[in-house]
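Here is the promised in-class demo. Please do not try to memorize the tokens; focus on the logic of going from shape to residues.
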């Protein structure tokens, strides 16, 4: 069994803080997405809860004692989902702010 070092303790503490922060961010982004639903801003905000949910779950996977220290393949898949959702969100915000969007009715 490997002895616990200060670095592993700090890493676990930072993961716990990250988990708490992304949980709060998920909640606020979900409220914003629901609040602006049906508007152009709502369409741009819609991917944000997916981003924060994927980040929260990936941090939770790394904190679970049965998972590898780096989280394994699950974390890679979850971060892939988050990156795609971030790209969609960025594209929608740029399209909205540069007025290159299509009006959907």
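The designed amino acids, position by position:
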């Amino acid at each position: 069994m490997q002895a616990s070092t200060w670095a592993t303790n700090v890493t676990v503490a930072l993961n716990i803080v990250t988990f708490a922060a992304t949980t709060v961010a998920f909640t606020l982004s979900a409220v914003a997405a629901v609040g602006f639903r049906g508007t152009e801003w709502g369409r741009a905000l819609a991917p944000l809860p997916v981003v924060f949910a994927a980040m929260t779950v990936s941090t939770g996977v790394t904190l679970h004692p049965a998972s590898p220290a780096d989280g394994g393949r699950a974390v890679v898949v979850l971060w892939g989902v988050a990156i795609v959702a971030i790209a969609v969100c960025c594209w929608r915000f740029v399209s909205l702010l540069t007025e290159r969007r299509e009006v959907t009715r």
